[in-house]
Amino acid sequence: MKRVLYFIAWGLGLLVTFIIAVNMIFHVATRPYIYASAADAPSAQVALIPGAAILANGKPSPIFIDRVDTAIELYKAGKVSKILVSGDNSTLSHNEVNPVRLYLLSKGIPDADIFLDHAGFDTYSTMYRARDIFGVSSVLITTQSFHLPRAVFIARRLGIQAYGVNTDVGHILFHNYFREVFSDEKAAFDLFFHTRPKFLGDTIPITGDGRNYP
Questions:
Q1: Which of 1, 6, 15, 156 has the fewest CB atoms within 10 Å, counting from its CB?
Q2: Contact criterion met (CB below 8 Å) for 66 and 167
Q3: Is-contact 97 115, C-beta < 8 A?
Q4: What is the pLDDT of residues 96-143, one digit of tens each?
Q5: Residue 156, class by beta-carbon neighbours within 10 Å (0-12 exposed, 13-18 middle, 19+ buried)?
Q6: How far is 38 from 8, CA to CA, in rounded Å?
Q7: Which residue ranges form the domains of the chain, and what is each CATH number?
Q8: Separation between Cα atoms, residue 52 and residue 62, nearest integer Å
């Protein structure tokens, strides 16, 4: 029994060490590429909005709106020429991207400059598809501080010139940070094993007209 307990403790110790190491690597490696505000960010080809929750009334959650508003700020400042909205649209009843498109239109963003990725089921898929489907070469990722290190790390490891823009405005909950701890490990495995997203498909050039790709 003591031997079994020893191996369990040893295994748990290795797991904790791995989790801490991955999280530290993500944070340290991406720190130079993360900006506190849209005003501080450099210019890039695209503002990428990672998916988030949609409310019961079909509207984007406050966290999602914070991401979208920052992308709008970047677009109107001339720092990006296109906006790519990524999210989970795996069923007819769950659509994270179309409500954001309507919000962007209501804020004066031209339809031609809005692109939707309906198969951004997680951050890794979002960045992979941004590169392989939409042909994105440089990007400003608009998301919260708990998510930025992972998003920027994945994108840069996939060869995208990626920067992050912090969208924290007080809508973050503790579980957002807690969940991120384990999401980092999944991302590390995806990168190590060169995982292919569940869906790829035909290319949608980000340099084109978003109205051609609903």
A1: 1
A2: yes
A3: no
A4: 899 999 999 999 999 999 999 999 999 999 999 999 999 999 999 999
A5: middle
A6: 47
A7: 2-212 (3.40.50.620)
A8: 9
